[in-house]
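#lab-general

N.A. 3:47 PM
ok so I finally got the sequence cleaned up, no stray characters, all 354 residues accounted for. can someone with queue access submit it? mine expired

B.Y. 3:52 PM
send it over

N.A. 3:53 PM
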Amino acid sequence: MARPKRRTALLPQRHDEPDLFLCDILDATPKGDRASMEHPLFSLSVKKDMAPFEYTRGQAGLRIVPAAEEGRANIFDRDILIYVLSQLMAAKEDRRPIGRRVRICAHDLLKATNRHTSGQAYATLRRALTRLQYTQIHTNIHDHGISAWRQISLITDATIVKEDATGRMLDVELELGDWLVKAVENNNVLTLSREYFQLRKPLERRLYELARKHCGQQSEWRIGLSILKDKCGSNSSDKEFKRLVKNICDTDAREHHMPDYTFELAAGNLVVRPRPELTLALGGERRPALSFSDLPVSPDALEKGRALARGWDIHALQQEWRCWVSEKGISVNNMDAHFLDFCRKRGPFDTAHF
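B.Y. 4:20 PM
back already:
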């Protein structure tokens, strides 16, 4: 009697041999926008999440109202945005025009994001489009001392432009929120591992996003579990959240399933370190990872940076700057001035960043 296959930490790679004419589409490097990697815009629930969600970090605030019928957009729905951003970045690099309206082939999207291509998968995709369109994000902006609240959407329109005889969608035309197109235009995106689409658990995906944004190629990134829970957008109790994170860390220690980084719990902190192969995977030459002490910023510069990038978490910006300098191999003579220029370009927290 054959033994049942052991369940692995990663989902199987469902499309090992893509059709030749789809290679260019499927090979587009996955990209995620920095803003939604920083803030918990997506639900971690795999069930219909109908509860409004609120999040505050520094002066930045979010209130997310779920779609009336399908609930709040979840982290698996984010795959659609990652796929579209990847296609837009590929078009930009080829010097082709990009805009808010994008037409995609549903079958290509499902294959590129490691989904099944069954009828049920197309029905799931249709519901995801509804959640992305009708989940509303209310956020504050800070501009010249004036605070206001605005309502924005992840996508503003979704039209199924072709269906086959069975009613299965073929082509979909999306209108993206302005902030997503600006992220592409301003290169405000980060490369993601293709194995991201093989991660089974919503929390695994969220931890990877945060590691990719905050750790980069630094030698180490630490974050307390209380702050991590907020940044993940988890509704679990503190005890349950710690148990969930510990389970992921223990599994990673055994199976090395988390892409690009190792995850470890130590003294109430999650400790993230890049795997040795990360630098090459990101397309750079092998360089020693920079530590915090390699890129010091004075307390005075942090205060000035806080004023320039009003509403942003200054320590998160500091880590992002270090990550950027490390990944790009930038030679920095004046640390404070370089960091302040980074903060100046980021500017006050604004819906333009979402």
